[in-house]
Amino acid sequence: MGQISGAGLENRDLLADLGEQSGDIALQCSETVGFLGEVNRRIQGDAAHLERLQSHMARLAASQSESVAAARELSHTAERAEQIIADGHDVIGLSLGEVATLVDHVTGLEGHLRQFLSVIEAVGDVSGQLGAIARQTRLLGVNAAIEAARGGEATQGFAIVAEEIRRLAEQAGESSASVATKLGQLDQDARRLIEGVEDNILRGRDAGAHIDQLRLRLAEIASLVTQFGERSGAIVGCTDAADREVAALRQGLTEFGRSARESTARVDAAREQLEGLEGMANAMLNTAAHGPQVTRNSRYIAMAEEGAEEVRKIIGAALRDGSLSIDALFDTDYRRIEGSDPPQYLTGFTQFADDMLRAMLDRHSAQDSAVIGCCLIDMNGYLPTHVNARCQPQRPGERLWNMEHARNRQIFMNDQTRRALDGASDFFLFTYRQDLGEGRYRALRSVFVPLVFAGRRWGLYEVGYLI
Q: Minimal CA–CA distance to 376: which of 403, 400, 357?
């Protein structure tokens, strides 16, 4: 009989060890699942970034194609411009040569005009000499006529000749004066023409300088067009190379995206398997916890049962004296508190829970330093109140801080809590991950005790503690 009793004790010890090891496995699974969840979240975030990158890359590829087309068109334009410059260079050179020859010709007119002016001046001198001769001849004719008159009839013939000489001299004088007048006008016209030619010569010299500069500019333009053509060819080469690189990068991104999706699927599968293992380990832990053996979890199970009983008494008394209605207790019309982040909600039960249950939750949580907190959870995961340390006023813009220190009035749900809410037992012992926001988790072990009022399942009383 003693041997049987000893075997029974040994079996109970083995069952307790099995439960504890199952709990440790569940804890490790929970932590690993949390890690895989974070890895998966990061992979999904990277995949989202990758999709945006692929979108940008698609636009880049389109722009690159346009750049390639533009570069090729630019190269063709450079080739056409170079051909046009080459074809027009000789024509422009000939035209400029003709202009330069015309300038030289105009410049040469100055010498001819000055020679012409010298001839006019010489003719003017001759005309002056003829005028002087005509005057002298006229005087000679007058003197001859006077002498003929003194000689009488014997000199009448000489008088006639003298008169004719005088008349001819007058005509010659008049002709000489007329020629002198015309030569004067011609001299003035010639001098004005020379002045105009001199102005044209100055302009021609300026034009010649501009022509020389224009020739230099044309040569520079031709050189620039040649360089432009060379650069355009280089641009075409670079854009073609860039286009090939972009195509290769797009292919690489596509392959990476496919790999990322496969990795996400594999991580999800591994996480699901670990969650299944976590569930089995938690089931073993919970089964072992319901045995007669005392384990390190027994203290917290007792604390949870005592706390749940006190909650039942407080709420039952309030329902009986009318300070709390059944409708307010089971109110699920969650009214969001404006500006809260993460969202917080109010129900008809929230204020009663703060006033009548928070102090009791603080008192029970203080019984053991390993206890993170005691709280109430309704069937939808709503926490109407919490211990004071988790009921701090939210800080605007500090979501992570709020997630940990203002957990009251929030809604939380995970697989283990859902199993406890839907399960039929006097208590549930599970290991799970406490969500701290943005992929942060804390592995906890919790005892859940069902809360039933007026024959209706309201939710759970939870004691969460660290192992």
A: 357
**pLDDT at site 374:** 96
The predicted pLDDT at position 1 comes to 40
Question: How many CA atoms lie within 13 Å of 47's alpha carbon, on the beta-carbon side?
Answer: 16
Q: Helix 415-422 to helix 156-289 angle, to the nearest 10 degrees?
A: 40
- What CATH number belongs to 298-467? 3.30.450.20
Superfamily of domain 1-295: Methyl-accepting chemotaxis protein (1.10.287.950)
Residues forming a β-bridge with 435: 441
Residue 453 three-state SS:
strand
Mean of pLDDT values over 67-77:
70
Give residue-wise pLDDT tens across range 171-183: 766 766 776 776 6
CA–CA distance, 312 with 357 (Å, rounded to integer): 11
Q: Which helix (H) or strand (E) holds 238?
A: helix 156-289
Q: In whole angstroms, what is the distance from residue 442 CA to residue 466 CA?
A: 9
Coil, strand or helix at 236 = helix
Angstrom distance (rounded) from CA 289 to CA 382: 26
Residue among 397, 398, 411, 389 nearest 344 (CA): 411
SS3 122: helix
Task: Kindly report whether the peptide bond that precedes residue 342 is cis, defined as omega within 30 degrees of 0.
Answer: yes
Domain ranges, ordered by start, for the chain: 1-295, 298-467
What phi and psi, each to the nearest 5 degrees, are found at residue 195? -60, -45
Share of the chain above pLDDT 90, in %: 31
Q: Which of 320, 300, 276, 319 is nearest to 364 (CA)?
A: 300
CB atoms within 10 A of CB 113: 18
pLDDT per residue over 7-55, tens digit each?
555 555 555 565 566 666 766 666 676 666 666 667 767 667 767 777 7
Residues 6+ apart with CB under 8 A from 50: 253, 256, 257, 260
Note the helical H segments in 290-341.
Answer: 298-321, 326-329
For residues 167 and 159, give the distance between their C-alpha atoms in angstroms, rounded to a whole number.
12
Nearest to 381 by CA among 353, 355, 354, 407: 407
Q: 396: helix, coil or strand?
A: coil
In degrees to the nearest 10, what's the CA dihedral of 233, 236, 240, 242? Answer: 110
